[in-house]
Specification:
about 575 residues, alpha+beta, Immunoglobulin-like, Rossmann fold, 4 domains, 12-stranded mixed β-sheet, 6-stranded mixed β-sheet, 11 helices
Length: about 575
């Protein structure tokens, strides 16, 4: 028993020393800083420019445009007659003295080109720059898979949507058509955008899992349905993202017709302008292959059901501070009070049929892992008839394809800063970051959250404050942290521009500085207890070793004093008495 106690005391001593030593040591972790470069400003559409020419100079003497821009020049002679020439573009115009001439052309050749006049002693310079922002996708970087493997009539679908397929090919995208193969990991390995139109056959469960992995890897898709789509199992994939396909038809209530009972006063095909404020609709500076904005869409066909409460396995956008797997699912193009879901197929509006914004026609989904999904209730708005008759629908597809391919409307960060990477508990750490769109423009109402991680869990998070333009600041309070290693990242989101997550910066959080002691009082108490335990152990052993010999001697003395007296053999005496003769 005494040996067990001694071992326990020595074990406690060793453990206390180890704990004390570990508590007084720290390790430094190098920081990581994001070095994104601000992109160039892109201008698409028409540039209008006035140039004056004299015998001695052009004013202005230089200008810059982006490739594919339409250049509209008004050239004015301020003195004598002149010519205006850009040889590489085949431009050679004559300008009468003190008059003007208008020239319009498309800047379709990259490079630097001189403009000159035979009667001017100097020349000017036109520079045509690459229209694409560095690090964003170009058409040749985007591979699109047009999946027909879940259509019962593949030939009809291929013909029905050949218009948008041809536009995709003609503008430099790589289009791959899948007719018979199952969707497997290898099929989607090099695909950037998955496009599925009017699926009317079930997906296998492995296929649904593969598509989920495809999205979680930051890829994108356009998924457009029909009445038959709602009867497949595709909603097993869509519902976790907050929407599903419905077999109800979207109908427009024509208020110019009487609404008598039993009379059909609705339209199955209608224009609508009920869009969410979104760069897919209204971005007018940077859509590389389209310079028109969308004001309306001609819609016909079935609806979507939108419900954010269906989102599972992820966190909604409103809980941006709590997770790194976040989904923002919202109705981009929705039904107003004049649009209802015709559930019973009688084409007549009744009070029990759903109307208003609950009817989603087109839903957009953005995820924190970089993917974008565009779900369209009815693929018919993209068929050859609709895009052929209604240019607005064709423009919508062109902009939508570029949006899901992340060729524009991308949120970016710069100047990510942390004031200290090694701090004691109780100290404040300043942080800041800048956010902007791909064209370096200021974006308002960005949701910017700083998150502090430890042991793979978010220990603290808070919204950062917009100071000016796209510059955000925040203060990390280390009182909320424990000693050890923590990491910081910042996640930002703006609808239509997606999510942006900075790289992690690692922090070393040290023990709180105590006054007046050089080390925390807890460590001093631990040290004193350790010494006390050691002294007790030593005294216990010492007493045991010294007292044991004396105790053994005393025991021997007592044993000697207690020796038993010599026993008398009574039998011997009895025998002698019996044999003694009688005196008589």
């Amino acid at each position: 028993m005494q040996m067990k106690i001694r071992k326990l005391l020595w074990t406690l001593t060793v453990i206390s020393i180890i704990v004390l030593g570990n508590g007084l040591t720290t390790k430094a972790i190098p920081n990581q800083i994001n070095d994104d470069i601000s992109p160039d400003l892109f201008h698409i559409g028409t540039v209008y420019l006035n140039i004056n020419v004299s015998a001695t100079e052009f004013t202005p003497a230089e200008f810059t445009v982006k490739e594919s821009t339409t250049v509209n020049l008004t050239i004015e002679s301020v003195d004598i007659g002149h010519s205006f020439e850009i040889l590489e573009y085949g431009i050679n115009e004559t300008i009468i003295a003190n008059s003007t001439v208008n020239i319009e052309f498309v800047a379709n050749a990259l490079g630097t080109f001189e403009y000159l006049s035979l009667n001017c002693s100097t020349t000017g310079t036109m520079t045509v720059e690459d229209p694409y922002v560095p690090d964003l996708s170009r058409p040749e970087d985007v591979t699109i898979l047009f999946d027909l493997s879940h259509n019962s009539n593949k030939t009809d679908i291929a013909i029905k949507y050949s218009g948008i397929a041809n536009w995709t090919n003609d503008n430099g995208f790589l289009l791959v058509v899948n007719e018979d193969d199952f969707l497997v990991v290898d099929t989607l390995r090099y695909i950037d955008v998955l496009m599925i139109l009017e699926p009317d056959e079930d997906f296998t469960e492995p296929e649904i899992d593969v598509v989920k992995i495809f999205i979680e890897n930051g890829r994108s898709m356009i998924l457009a349905g029909s009445e038959a789509t709602a009867f497949t199992n595709i909603n097993n994939f869509t519902k976790p993202f907050g929407y599903q396909f419905d077999n109800t038809t979207a109908r427009y209530i024509n208020t110019t017709l009487p609404a008598a009972d039993g009379e059909n006063n609705t339209l199955s095909s209608f224009f609508s302008t009920d869009f969410l404020d979104h760069p897919l609709i209204n971005e007018n500076q940077y859509v590389p292959l389209t310079d028109e904005i969308i004001t309306k869409i001609k819609y016909t066909g079935t609806l979507l059901e939108q419900n954010a409460s269906w989102i599972t396995g992820f966190t909604e956008e409103s809980n941006i501070t709590d997770s790194d797997e976040i989904i923002d699912s919202y109705s981009l193009f929705y039904g107003n009070e004049s649009i209802f879901a015709d559930k019973n197929g009688d084409s007549i509006y009744w009070q029990n049929e759903t109307t208003g914004v609950n009817n989603s026609l087109i839903t957009a989904i953005e995820t924190s892992f970089g993917s974008r999904i565009l779900a369209i209730g009815s693929a018919d708005i993209l068929n050859n008839t609709m895009v052929g008759r209604y240019e607005v629908n064709e423009i919508f597809f062109q902009r939508a394809l570029q949006w899901v391919a992340k060729m524009y409307a991308v949120l970016r960060n710069d100047d990510y800063y942390i004031s200290a990477y090694d701090a004691k508990i109780g100290e404040l750490i300043n942080s800041s970051v800048s956010y902007y769109a791909q064209n370096d423009s200021v974006i308002d109402n960005i949701n910017v959250t700083l998150r502090i991680w430890s042991a793979l869990q978010i220990r603290d998070s808070f919204y950062m404050t917009q100071v000016n333009n796209s510059y955000y600041e925040g203060v990390i309070d280390t009182n909320n942290l424990s000693k050890g290693i923590a990491s910081v990242d910042i996640i930002a989101h703006k609808r239509g521009y997606g999510y942006n997550i900075t790289e992690e910066i690692f922090l070393q959080i040290n023990p709180r500085e105590a006054v007046p002691y050089d080390v925390p009082i807890l460590y001093i108490i631990t040290f004193v207890i350790t010494i006390g335990i050691g002294v007790l152990a030593f005294v216990f052993v010492f007493v045991r070793v010294i007292k044991t010999p004396k105790t053994e001697d005393a025991v021997e003395d007592i044993e000697e004093e207690e020796e038993p007296e010599e026993e008398i053999d009574l039998a011997e005496y009895e025998t002698e008495e019996e044999t003694e003769p009688d005196e008589t």
